[in-house]
Write a structure and sequence with these properties.
The chain is an all-alpha fold and 273 residues long. It has twelve helices and no strands.
């Protein structure tokens, strides 16, 4: 446990010295405030065109930010020789990976909290108040995106040899999971037998953290009707009793399995040199 905390504290110190973190902080805060000011005459509650636009903005920015910062953090350990030095100490791979995850997550969550805190203060000053539940769901949406995509970023960093390779893979994953997801999914489903459409759609949704979190928040905001009949079971499940707790369990399982994959990849690379 002491090794894990040491790695986490080290990662937090490095993270807050990283200019990338502050660049994304300024970018995230600026675009959020601009969108808030444009819609300053409305009371923001539930799912609407305003909240849909804000969800899209968050969905475009946060996963890319997380993938780049998370993957670069691990590949930099290989490039500057830090991991070679750390591996000479009695430091377990699991402590290293878990400490990295906790430290990077802390830095990214502070960035998200600052951005939403600033948005909340400005919205209160200009009178464009958020409904409390809507604001809370946006915060949960952003935090879940960070945590789930951080797992993906760490796996990318584990299998990448340098920053350029990590950059290429990260941008490709971001494009596939966020930008091209709908088009790619529809093209694939055209070749699937009708009886297999819903099972394939469900499995694909669980594999894509962006889509998984987006569906949860849209449904909780009351926008489940726009998703279509294919997601009727999802609406019933999430809006039902214990739906939020079940979703939290799904996210926990997702993170645990992903960290296990990162551990395997890093341990494999450790023994292969």
């Amino acid at each position: 446990m002491s090794d894990l905390l040491h790695v986490a504290k080290r990662e937090i110190r490095i993270g807050f010295r990283n200019p990338w973190a502050y660049s994304f902080l300024v970018l995230f805060s600026t675009f959020s405030l601009c969108l808030l000011i444009i819609n300053s005459q409305n009371f923001i509650q539930g799912y609407s065109g305003i909240t849909g636009s804000m969800l899209s903005l968050t969905l475009y920015l946060l996963p890319l930010m997380t993938l780049l910062i998370g993957s670069f953090s691990l590949t930099s350990e290989k490039e500057d020789g830090s991991w070679q030095l750390l591996s000479t100490y009695p430091l377990g791979t699991l402590s290293f990976v878990a400490g990295k995850f906790i430290g990077i997550a802390a830095v990214l969550l502070v960035i998200v909290a600052f951005g939403y805190g600033l948005m909340g203060v400005v919205s209160w000053v200009i009178g464009a108040n958020f409904d409390v539940q809507t604001f809370f769901l946006f915060l949960v949406f952003s935090c879940l995106l960070v945590l789930l995509f951080l797992c993906v970023a760490m796996f990318i960093g584990s299998i990448s040899r340098n920053r350029w390779q990590a950059l290429t893979i990260s941008v490709s994953v971001w494009f596939f999971a966020v930008i091209g997801w709908s088009t790619i999914l529809l093209s694939v489903l055209n070749f699937v037998p009708y009886l297999w459409v819903k099972p394939v759609l469900t499995a694909a949704t669980f594999l894509n953290p962006a889509e998984l979190v987006r569906l949860f928040v849209v449904i909780r905001l009351g926008g489940g009707s726009i998703l279509g009949p294919a997601y009727y079971t999802w609406v019933q499940w999430i809006q039902g009793p214990g739906g939020s707790w079940m979703f939290a369990l799904v996210c926990l399982v997702w993170i645990t399995c992903s960290i296990s994959a990162v551990y395997w990849a890093w341990e494999r690379g450790r023994f292969r040199g």
